[in-house]
Specification:
It comes from Eulacestoma nigropectus. This protein is mostly beta strands and 523 residues long. The chain has a domain of 36 residues. The chain contains five helices and 36 strands. Strands 1-36-35-34 form a four-stranded antiparallel beta sheet, with no helix packed on it. It has a four-stranded antiparallel beta sheet with strand order 2-3-4-5, with no helix packed on it. It is globular and about 80 Å long. The protein starts with 15 loop residues before the first helix and ends in a 7-residue tail after the last strand.
Length: 523
């Protein structure tokens, strides 16, 4: 621009891998992401300084659920939005109390894609997609709550849409119905219900209708319990623990009867209406008439099934109750069990351990037990290039004392009796891991560990180096933590947010913000 010369191409570096590596290290000052990466690196260093504290700046309580999305706290069934970015949280908008018929069932945050030309200026700002109990899909401004778009979903085919999820994050959205169930009287009369679920598929920004399809017993079998769509894969789960995968994109292309656009007038199966408008809603224009080609199937306890790693592997638990807590890591290519691929912490605990592929896209695996976190990695077996081995990358261990305790009792005659016993691995009186998460922008692994003595529970949030597991920072949470309650903890750059659900639908939200202060005080 302005007649300036173009910079020579990376000083003669032509290898793609080297170019990407040098760019990641910030070699090119003109790269738009360099300043952002440097700023995040500085923020990480400041955050992990000993003098940096996290101060509880705001607390609120509510009789309705509290949700958090990218710096915004939603209360009163999404009628109230509070910004958590300011020095003290402030209200962005507050709507009047909605009727029960307008209750929000689910919501997704929608952010503008980079490098896309969009039809409306409002599309370039963050918005919230909400699904109401009366089957309306609304797109709201994330900052004002203004309704930007509205789509009526349910025509004559379905009356109960309840769930929102991403097929491709920020690109393709799935709206799923509750499972169709006939009334008891209809079942007693011998009426058969063959359609189990409806799925409506949308492209977002601009919001456009791709199609609606039904999951039918006649096609997928009688024992279907649930379905999901993720990354172009239709996942069908069965009551006996079976999980089957199908190519969702191929299903859309093969069984699409007729495409429709939102706002288009249509005459469909004797109905005349407008797509996405009340009372007609959306046509069910994708009819699966034959079982699609099966990509993969596996049997796993409670349908637990995950894919990840490089090369592709999957994690399952053998489909017997006695194997609960045992995880098998197998190759997706040939189902071969990886070397050291059986992971079993042999926990004696009320709550089971859990395992998942690391969200940092490194291909590693995180295995979390009551007092131990293992980060595992894949590596090639020597002299067997086709086989992979599961190796330990690093571990994080809870800070606890010996779990073997003595209880002393005195009988009526004065005799002292000592009983020796071993406590559970997740004994609340010993420090126990409750939450493990990953902050992608700062490349930090965060853990929440809790110790409860009597009615008083204490928790701390720790930041670990994601590469080596080294403890960098520990933040004590001021509020008491009851292990019998439901908890969520969000770590978002310089913000920590704790949402707690108590009995009788009582909710609390505690907001902590980073404070840099060299003075030694209680904050």
């Amino acid at each position: 621009a302005g007649g300036g010369r173009a910079a020579p191409r990376a000083c003669g570096v032509h290898n793609v891998c080297r170019l990407l590596t040098r760019r990641a290290h910030g070699f090119y000052a003109r790269d738009a992401g360099v300043a952002h990466r440097k700023n995040l690196g500085l923020l990480r260093k400041i955050m992990c300084q000993e003098s940096t504290k996290f101060k509880n700046v705001w607390t609120t309580h509510s009789a309705s659920p509290i949700a958090y999305e990218r710096g915004r706290i939603y209360m009163d069934n999404y009628q109230c939005c509070i910004s958590s970015i300011a020095q003290e949280p402030r209200i962005l908008y507050q709507k009047s109390k909605c009727a029960k018929s307008e209750k929000v069932e689910d919501a997704l945050l929608l952010e503008c894609p980079l490098g896309e030309m969009l039809p409306s200026p409002s599309d370039y700002k963050a918005s919230l997609i909400v699904l109401t109990v009366q089957n309306w899909l609304l797109r709201l401004s994330a900052d004002s709550g203004e309704v930007l778009e509205k789509v009526y979903l349910a025509g004559s085919c379905c009356k109960f849409f309840r769930y929102l999820s991403w097929d491709t994050p920020q690109e393709v959205m799935i709206v799923k119905s509750a499972q169709n169930k006939l009334p008891a009287a209809a079942r007693q009369a011998g009426i058969q219900q063959t359609v189990l679920f409806y799925l409506a598929v949308f492209q977002v920004l601009p919001l456009s209708f791709i199609g609606m399809l039904e999951i039918n017993k006649k096609i997928f079998g009688n024992s279907v319990t649930d379905v999901a769509v993720s990354n172009g894969i239709l996942i069908v789960m069965y009551s006996m623990g079976l999980v089957r995968l199908y190519n969702f994109k191929a299903i859309l292309e093969q069984f699409m009867e007729q495409p429709f656009d939102l706002g288009q007038e249509f005459n469909w199966n004797g109905q005349v209406g407008v797509v996405g408008k009340y009372p007609f809603g959306l046509p069910c224009n994708i009819k699966i008439t034959d079982t699609p080609p099966l990509l993969f199937e596996a049997s796993s306890l409670e349908n637990a099934f995950q894919i990840g790693g490089y090369p592709w592997h999957y994690i399952i638990t053998p489909n017997k109750k006695k194997h609960k807590g045992v995880f098998h890591i197998c190759s997706l290519k040939d189902n071969a069990l990886a070397k050291n691929g059986i992971q079993d912490m042999k926990c004696c605990s009320l709550e089971p351990d859990w395992i998942y592929f690391h969200p940092d896209m490194s291909g590693r695996i995180i295995h979390v037990g009551p007092n131990l976190i293992k980060v595992l990695k894949f590596k090639e077996v020597k002299n067997h290039a086709d086989q992979m081995e599961i190796a330990e990358d690093f571990t994080i261990v809870a800070n606890r004392e010996n779990c073997v305790n003595n209880t002393v009792t005195v009988t009526a005659s004065g005799r002292v009796v000592k009983k020796r016993f071993t406590s559970l691995d997740d004994d609340p009186e010993q420090e126990t891991f409750k939450i493990v998460d990953y902050e992608d922008e700062l490349d930090l692994l965060s853990t929440v560990a809790v110790t409860q003595i009597g009615a008083d529970g204490r928790a701390h949030l720790d930041f670990h180096c994601n590469e080596h597991g080294i403890l960098l920072k520990s933040i004590p949470l001021k509020e008491s933590w009851d292990v019998t309650y439901s908890h969520e903890v969000y770590f978002d750059k310089d913000l920590v947010l704790h949402i707690e659900q108590k009995p009788n639908r009582r909710f609390s939200c505690y907001v902590y913000q980073m404070v840099c202060d060299t003075a030694k005080d209680d904050d």
